Amino acid sequence: MLRANRRLLKRGGKLAFLTIEVAGDLGKRDRRRAAAAGPPAIATRSTYPSLLRSAGLADIDRIDVTADYRVTAAAWMNARNAHAQAFADEFGADELRERNAEGERRLSAIDDGLLKRFLYVAHRR
User: Fold this and answer.
1) Which of 96, 93, 69, 104 is nearest to 80 (CA)?
2) What's 11's DSSP letter?
3) Cα 16–50–35 angle (5° rounding)?
């Protein structure tokens, strides 16, 4: 995917994307907890800077936007709770409970430093 994006860029062009990552240097238990709290495709074998370099991109910036991610995750929880009845009517009470449990796991993992969100910007030379 990164190589395909690189081919679309003109020389000097930029590729930017946001991603959620498991924090580095975690033990097995915390790594499993982070993976369970994050999105489905959170586990990668390589780091994003390594993947970007191998795709032929350079001048990689990695900007930590975890604080904003936490604000957004909390806003989703608050909105879902503010409209709980409408959500339950549309999707069912079980789905509401599962989404709220997932949101609590995610917030807890962010607060405990297990999940991070980064903005990556890389350039095609």
Assistant:
1) 96
2) T
3) 80
> pTM of the predicted model, to two decimals?
0.86
- Please say if the pLDDT value at position 80 is more than 80: yes
Six token digits for residue 66: 């975890």
Q: How far is CA 64 from CA 56, 96, 115, in A?
A: 23, 30, 11
CB 23 within 8 A of CB 117: no
Burial class (CB in 10 A: 0-12, 13-18, 19+), 31: middle
Q: Which of 62, 53, 54, 58 is nearest to 11 (CA)?
A: 58
| pLDDT tens per residue, range 52-61 | 999 999 999 9
**Coarse DSSP helix, strand, coil percentages of the chain, rounded to the nearest 5 percent:** 55, 20, 25
By the 8 A CB rule, do 93 and 13 touch?
no
Q: In sequence order, which residues have a C-beta less than 8 Å from that of residue 5 and are 6 or more positions away?
A: 15, 55
Answer yes or no: is pLDDT of 21 > 90. yes
